[in-house]
TrEMBL record:
InterPro entries: Glyco_trans_4-like_N. SUPFAM superfamilies: UDP-Glycosyltransferase/glycogen phosphorylase. This is Glycosyl transferase group 1. Keywords: Transferase. GO terms for molecular function: glycosyltransferase activity. Signal peptide: none annotated. Pfam families: Glyco_trans_1_4, Glyco_transf_4. The keyword Transferase applies. CDD domains: GT4_PimA-like. The keyword Transferase applies. Residues 16-214 form the Glycosyltransferase subfamily 4-like N-terminal domain. It comes from the Bacteria.
Length: 400
């Protein structure tokens, strides 16, 4: 098959959930012998140089286009007063659209895959200029993220603003769902929600796939006990979750019964997080040089997500590294887990406290949870396993 993948962010290197999902999709398809072309926006916020590539780039046709997705204060006010969905609009660029249309005049594709809602801005033009089957890869239900964030706010102004954003994004999202030929979701929960929204096109659950050859746990280099969080802290659900955890557990870690160190790693860490640092107890490390080395060096992963959606790639990676993970029901969404066997679920302060207390006092228990987690990832989230499902999905779509 000849496949064109449209990405709103450069999927190289694997320094976040989105690029991990997109790159491993490309890797799986290439390994199965399919002809893959990738057109990606290279936005100012996450601009990547082609020097930061890997061997996979040389096995595909690859085109990047520089774009600035930042919004001025004036544009923000205009969008707030108007009815436009600026979250999506800022990813639209007429130059990139022209580049796509030129490509479609010169090449015929079987499948064109839109990686996330933000690339849907180019759907109308592509529909008019291609006979390919158009697939929407829903990394999450976008409006649900903003709706859940609003629910966490006590400030009435912030709550009202986030609810406004959620309503606009929902209106846009529902408008476009049935304009694709098919949809791939990461979780069964997202599929069921789309069906509730009267989505008529075929929907297939295709979970996060990872290249397991990259994940090589080494207990000899792991500090036990130790707690850690790793994730992009410019993503609001991550930031608010970690702030909640630090506000609730800093005293227990520094002066209380939880005798354990806590490490926070993640790019774009706000300066305000420095206030949480306590020498020898709580370490705010910012962006780490090697994410997998950082994960391997710690023993217990905490992911206190209170909002967000889709499948948490960092949790999948943590499970692949045989980590004992404590997270919320929301954080574990999409995983086919058994609580207390593959992962530990904690949905309030007391449940987190009890789980941490148990884990830091029982290394054998933590190792057992980590081993069970790794087996689950091998069975259900290996890129090779997920790619077989993807190809079957594409073939059924092309035959319909």
């Amino acid at each position: 098959m000849k496949i064109l993948i449209l990405s709103n962010r450069v999927p190289f290197p694997q320094n976040g959930g989105y690029p991990i999902v997109v790159r491993n999709t490309i890797l799986g398809l290439v390994n199965e012998g399919h002809d893959v072309t990738v057109f990606t926006l290279n936005n100012k916020k996450h601009r990547i140089s082609l020097e930061d590539d890997d061997d996979l780039i040389r096995k595909i046709r690859y085109q990047t286009y520089d774009i600035n997705i930042s919004i001025s204060a004036w544009e923000f006010i205009l969008n707030l007063l108007g009815r436009r969905t600026y979250n999506v609009d800022r990813f639209y660029d007429i130059g990139f659209e022209r580049l796509l249309l030129t490509e479609l005049k010169n090449e015929e594709y079987d499948i064109i895959q839109f990686e996330g809602l933000f690339m849907s801005a180019y759907l109308p033009a592509i529909r008019k200029n291609s006979t390919a089957k158009l697939v929407y890869r829903a990394h999450n239900i976008e409006h649900l993220i903003w709706q859940r964030l609003a629910e966490q706010k006590s400030d009435p102004i912030k709550k009202t603003y986030l609810n406004l954003l959620a309503k606009r994004i929902k209106r846009y999202e529902l408008k476009y769902l049935n304009n694709f030929d098919a949809i791939a979701t990461l979780t069964e929960q997202d599929k069921q929600l789309m069906l509730q929204y009267q989505t008529k096109v075929p929907i297939q659950v295709l979970p996060v796939g990872i290249d397991l050859s990259r994940y090589k746990p080494d207990y000899s280099k792991t500090e036990f006990p130790s707690l850690f969080f790793l994730g992009a802290l410019d993503w609001m659900p991550n930031r608010e979750g970690v702030e909640w955890f630090l506000d609730n557990f800093s005293r227990d870690i520094t002066d209380g019964d939880l005798r354990v160190k806590f490490y926070v790693g993640g790019r774009n860490t706000p300066e305000s997080f420095d206030d949480y640092e306590v020498m020898g107890k709580i370490f705010i490390q910012g962006e780490v040089d090697d994410a997998l080395e950082f994960v391997n060096s710690k023993s217990i992963m905490v992911v206190p997500l209170l909002s967000g959606g889709g499948m948490r790639v960092k949790i999948v990676e943590g499970m692949a590294m045989q980590k004992c993970i404590i997270t919320t029901t929301l954080g574990a969404e999409g995983l086919n887990y058994q609580n207390g066997y593959h992962i530990l679920i904690a949905d309030d302060r007391q449940e987190f406290y009890d789980a941490i207390k148990h884990c830091i006092g029982d290394e054998e228990f933590c190792r057992r949870i980590g081993l069970n987690a790794r087996r689950l990832i091998e069975q259900q989230h290996d890129t090779n396993v997920v790619t077989v499902q993807f190809i079957k999905f594409y073939q059924q779509l092309l035959q319909s």
